[in-house]
Specification:
It is a single chain. By secondary structure, this protein is of the alpha+beta class. The protein folds into four domains: 138 residues, Calcium-transporting ATPase, cytoplasmic transduction domain A (Distorted Sandwich), CATH 2.70.150.10; 279 residues, Calcium-transporting ATPase, transmembrane domain (Up-down Bundle); 162 residues, HAD superfamily/HAD-like (Rossmann fold, 3-Layer(aba) Sandwich), CATH 3.40.50.1000; 194 residues, Calcium-transporting ATPase, cytoplasmic domain N, CATH 3.40.1110. Helices cover 48% and strands 17% of the residues. Strands 10, 11, 12, 13, 14, 15, 16, 17, 18, 19 and 20 form an eleven-stranded mixed β-sheet that branches. An eight-stranded mixed β-sheet has the order 8-26-25-24-9-21-23-22, sandwiched between helices. Strands 1, 2, 3, 4, 5, 6 and 7 form a seven-stranded antiparallel β-sheet that branches. A hairpin with a 2-residue loop joins β17 and β18. α6 packs parallel to α11 and α16 packs antiparallel against α17. The chain is elongated and about 115 Å long.
Length: 904
């Protein structure tokens, strides 16, 4: 321990912002070009611990248990128990208290599981950092960073530790989470005075901030609670108990039911007093009504249904970060989706190079893994074509990707797929990156700028520098004054520019992603890299459409969800991909170019309607995505928006459902999103929408089921009391039924996979209440049918078969229970089959029915329990009466379903 404290003290780089970078590296005992060794990493991890903030105490089991007793429904039950005790009904009072405990136990265990499930879901979203260790670049979990680690930063990264910057290129950071500064601040490597405040330490990047632009490299100087964020913030990483609008509506629904029934109980009690009923009977009736009111299963099933649904979506690679997003998913009307990596595989390969001398085709031999270069149908050795070799070398130099030393496959690369493809093709053509960089060391990088659509690097060549440039072809061509040919450099005249633009369009029409390569030599590395360039050629990269996209888009069309491609790629490339996945049809409007999205015109109604009809928006800048989201929302659409870059974050936040890419998305984008795709696939979005619809539909079904059961209990007690007849069902029997026939079947309905026809219907209006008018009619109708069956069975038992009251009450108790169990099958869709539907396919329903049947038999034949519930054997005639009367509501319900009535 003493040795660890000593190591910690020695390695702490105090006031790093006021210390030259080489001194900081020396104090941390690390070589910036090599990084830390494995043995040193293990030693420092033991010394400093994991790189995370101290976690606040999560909701423990006791807190969850106590919360089960805070409900108005539980208070109502407790009041009924107290009243029973006051009037000498000790057994009833004890039983009610026991039911409260049982109900709390069910709620406790299901909610505990749900809370722990949500905590586990959050752990799936792991933050990573790009580091240099043992001379290699690799991605590691942010928690494994240690002081001395060399971290490589790019636009879109979340800074995961306190870092002293060693290299910067147009680097800017959003430090609002730490300093409150709303505008991104520029970063450099120059030290600043010791007394500079946190917001003015320009050579530092702090944990919890985000890189908004540029690139850089730095050394970790503090981790975990030793960071500035750890010192000054009480930020915690805990599972928060989110209350969604849906849960609020359910809670309000339960409270309204309570107050409504209290009013009915008051009316029944008053009428009983007026006709001279026994006060004890009136109290017993009031208690029975109070017990019948409480929908014990409502909060329990809501919690577990949401958690179960989110787990199922997670298994399908959709990680929902916000519970409230589940509701919105089912209402989505339009998806604004990126092209690269979402509609396509995001597995780039260089397939074509357009040079001044002609087209060079590149095919990839999968058996040997080597590219084959062909020109005019003949195989070409790249080393025999100086312009081709120069172009490949520029693609290798102007590149931030790296290839794994463990594999020669493209997929082993780290970085942007386009850069990985360029690097892989150059190295497989015989160019060695390390050798070239030793001859032409990089001295400056001008990071990719989304506004000018180019990137550049400067490389030392004795007394001068070579500039390597790559970027969007229209931007690079506009910056070139000459073109490299086999005969040497030639002036790029206007007619030649037009020819290059036509070649660019032809490549894009083939569905290729096109970028241009250019170079120049300068004597000063501080000059503008994008002036007087020499064009080397165009690179065509193929990113084939995902195989499952066509069917996913077709499913969206059937579900009434529009799919709109919003991409920064060229219009012709976007059009080609859209046609291949059948996103567009011949009758649809064409592609809108980003430069045509003129803000003043958007307000014009005619222009707005035309705009919203377009299925493709190409060459769209990140800030225009935000405008598009707003435009669609103002038109009444519920918008799902995909994004992966830091500049997509505002649009992701603005969208009704922000969807970030889990594989290629930046950490900033993931933090801003409501949902993260673990596989970046468009089909996962469609699966998530279907999952959101299923969850909402399941909740609607179990609410309808629970309310129709509870209202029928209220009607049975109220009508019998008003008719001055014996109570057909006792308070404890109602409690038992509520625990048996309410919770388990409702829970089974809540966790079902949903109706197979969900994606054949239009999206739900987000303003639509949980229960529509026809649902309330259904609740009323089913309640009346169940009530009629129970009171009918009770009357037949008493008047026709002349049974004693206890046996008649037992029969009405069993009839009510059986009606409610059969009633589960009335929760199917009218569009589903009688035998094969979402209810009959749900294995949890059959399990619940089997369990409930056993518990009902125990209520009749298990000594002790039957005494408590005051039940006796109904005898064969009684069982036949129960079966016949309980099938009546189910039979009517199925007849209505056959004629398309009673849709859930």
């Amino acid at each position: 321990m003493k040795e660890q404290r000593q190591n910690k003290k020695e390695l702490r780089a105090n006031q790093s912002w006021a210390t030259p970078e080489d001194h900081v590296l020396e104090s941390l005992r690390v070589d910036a070009d090599q990084g830390l060794t494995e043995s040193e990493i293990k030693t420092r991890r033991r010394t400093f611990g994991p790189n995370r903030l101290r976690q606040a105490q999560k909701r423990n089991a006791w807190q969850i248990l106590l919360e089960q007793f805070k409900s108005l429904l539980v208070i109502l039950l407790a009041a009924a128990a107290v009243v029973s005790l006051i009037f000498g009904e000790t057994v009833d009072s004890i039983a009610i208290f026991a039911v409260i405990l049982i109900n709390a136990s069910i709620g406790f265990f299901t909610e505990l599981r749900a809370v722990r499930s949500m905590e586990a879901l959050r752990k799936l979203s792991r933050v990573e950092a790009k580091v240099r260790r043992n001379g290699n670049t690799e991605m590691v979990s942010a928690e494994k960073l240690v002081p001395g680690d060399i971290v490589i930063l790019q636009g879109g990264d979340v800074v995961t530790a306190d870092i002293r910057l060693l290299q910067t290129s147009k680097l800017q950071a959003d430090e609002s989470a730490l300093t409150g500064e709303s505008v991104p601040v520029g970063k450099s490597t120059e030290k600043v005075p010791e007394d500079r405040v946190l917001a003015e330490r320009s050579c530092m990047a702090y944990k919890g901030t985000a890189i908004t632009r540029g690139a850089g490299e730095g050394v970790v100087v503090a981790t975990g609670m030793q960071t500035e964020l750890g010192h000054i913030s009480s930020l915690v990483e805990e599972a928060q108990d989110e209350i969604t609008p849906l849960e609020k509506r359910l809670d309000k629904l339960g409270q309204r039911l309570v107050w409504g029934t209290l009013a009915i109980a008051g009316l029944v009690a008053m009428s009983g007093i007026l006709i001279g009923k026994d006060p004890l009977l009136i109290i017993e009736t009031a208690i029975a009504l109070a017990v019948a009111t409480v929908p014990e299963g409502l909060p329990i099933v809501a919690t577990i249904a949401l958690a179960r649904g989110m787990w199922r979506m997670s298994q399908r690679n959709a990680l929902v970060r916000q519970l409230s997003a589940v509701e919105t998913l089912g209402s989505t009307t339009v998806i604004l989706t990126d092209k690269t990596g979402t509609l396509t595989e995001n597995e780039m390969s260089v397939v074509e190079l357009e040079l001044a001398s002609g087209e060079v085709e590149i095919t990839h031999d999968e058996s040997e893994g080597m590219p084959i270069f062909q020109k005019n149908g003949n195989q070409l050795d790249p080393s025999n074509d100086p312009v081709l070799i120069t172009a490949l070398e520029i693609g290798l130099l102007c590149n931030n990707a790296s290839l794994s030393t463990k594999s020669k496959e493209v997929e082993a690369g780290i970085g942007d797929p386009s850069e990985v493809a360029l690097l892989s093709t150059a190295e497989k053509a015989g160019l060695n990156r390390d050798e070239i960089l030793s001859e032409k060391p990089e001295v400056r990088e001008v990071a990719f700028d989304p506004e000018i659509k180019m990137m550049a690097t400067f490389h030392q060549l004795n007394s001068h520098y070579q500039v390597a440039v790559k970027g969007a072809p229209e931007a690079v061509i506009a910056s070139c004054r000459s073109v490299e040919t086999p005969e040497g450099e030639q002036q790029l005249k206007q007619e030649n520019r037009q020819k290059w633009e036509k070649r660019m369009d032809a490549m894009a029409q083939e569905g290729l992603r096109v970028m241009a390569l250019a170079t120049r030599e300068v004597v000063d590395q501080e000059l503008d890299p994008y002036e007087n360039l020499t064009l080397l050629g165009l690179v065509g990269l193929l990113d084939p459409p995902r195989k499952d996209v066509k069917e996913a888009i077709s499913a969206c069309k059937r579900a009434g969800v529009r799919v709109v491609m919003v991409t920064g790629d060229q219009a012709l490339t976007a059009q080609k991909i859209a046609q291949s996945v059948e996103l567009v049809e011949d009758s649809q409007p064409g592609t809108v170019h980003g430069q045509d999205l003129v803000t003043p015109e958007v307000g014009e109604e005619e222009h707005l309607q035309q705009l919203l009809q377009n299925p493709i928006f190409a060459r769209v800048e990140p800030k225009q995505k935000l405008d598009l989201v707003t435009t669609y929302q103002e038109a009444g659409e519920v918008v799902a928006m995909t994004g992966d870059g830091v500049n997509d974050a505002p649009a992701l936040k603005k969208a009704d459902i922000g969807i970030a890419m889990g594989m290629r998305g930046t950490q900033v984008a993931r933090e801003a999103a409501d949902m993260v795709l673990k596989d970046d696939a468009f089909s996962t979005i469609v699966a998530a929408i279907e999952g959101g619809r299923a969850i909402f539909n399941n909740i609607r079904k179990f609410v309808l089921y629970l309310l129709s059961c509870n209202v029928s209990e209220i009607l049975v007690v109220s009508l019998a009391s008003l008719a001055n007849a014996p109570l057909p069902i006792r308070p404890l029997q109602i409690l038992y039924l509520n625990l048996v026939t309410d919770v388990f079947p409702a829970l089974a309905l809540g966790v079902g996979e949903g109706d197979q026809g969900l994606m054949e219907r239009p999206p739900r209006d987000p303003k639509e209440p949980l229960l529509l008018r026809h649902h309330w009619w259904a609740i009323g109708g089913y309640s009346i049918l169940i009530t009629a069956s129970v009171l009918g069975a009770f009357a037949i038992a008493l008047l026709w078969f002349e049974m004693n009251t206890q046996r008649a009450v037992t029969i009405s108790f069993l009839t009510l229970a059986s009606c409610q169990l059969w009633h589960v099958f009335n929760m199917r869709s009218t569009k589903s089959s009688f035998l094969r539907n979402e209810v009959t396919r749900n294995r949890f329903v059959w399990g619940a029915l089997a369990l409930c049947t056993i518990l009902l038999l125990a209520a009749i034949y298990l000594p002790g329990l039957s005494d408590l519930l005051a039940t006796i054997d109904p005898q064969p005639v009684g069982w036949l009466l129960v079966l016949g009367m309980s099938l009546f509501p189910w039979a009517v319900g199925q007849i209505l379903k056959t004629f398309g009535l009673g849709e859930i």
